[in-house]
Amino acid sequence: MRGLTGGGGGGEVSAWLSNKVMGTYWEEKVKQKHVHKLSSIKPSIDNKPPATYPHLQNKRKKMQLQEERLKAIQRENGILLSKLSRIAARKGPEGSGMERAHRALHPGEACSLGSLNGLSRKRELQRIARDNHAILSRIQERQSQKSCYDRQMMDNEWQQTLMYRRLASQHQESPTKDSKKSVVLPPIDVGTN
């Protein structure tokens, strides 16, 4: 006798059953069981999102740094507020009870002391003027002296070199042992500075 699950199709199950109504009932039951198995099947690949851990989501260090930054901003704001309140509490430049030297300047009003870095700027300008004067004196000293480069002398030396080349190219015979022919070259004329 075959098993109750039958083969591939529903007709095989009803073939060994004696009642047609029982066969259709059995086929429906097998179909429902198959649909249930299909719906409850689990995938072989894990495609669920990773687990979330609260200590990684909260980011305590970032929160601590933000709190410290906000405290620093609040402290600076408090300092600025106290300075602004002191400035606002003044009644005016003359009526505040402060001396004239310690009051705030009005727009367009110049400081009585002059520039705060005027002395250092003046010293810097004097140093630059001294350096420029020293450079100018060195340039003038050099212009008064004769240069060690004499163009006429260098041109004469070059002409003499060209003459030596021409003479050397005319006498290109290889010297033999028995003929010791010597070429007499004119002396080099070295000019004086």
Descriptors:
mainly alpha, 193 residues, flat, 56% helix
Concise overview:
With 193 residues, this protein is an all-alpha fold. The protein has 6 helices and no strands. The protein has helices at residues 10-16, 20-39, 54-58, 60-89, 118-144, 151-170.
Describe the structure.
InterPro entries: CFAP97D1/2, Hmw/CFAP97. Pfam families: Hmw_CFAP97. It comes from Chloropicon primus. The chain is 56% helix and 0% strand. It has a domain at 10-39. It has 193 residues and is mainly α.
Overall number of strands: 0
The rounded Rg comes to 56 Å
The run of helices and strands is: HHHHHH
What portion of the residues fall into strands of 2 or more residues? under 5%
Overall form: flat
Flag low-confidence runs: none
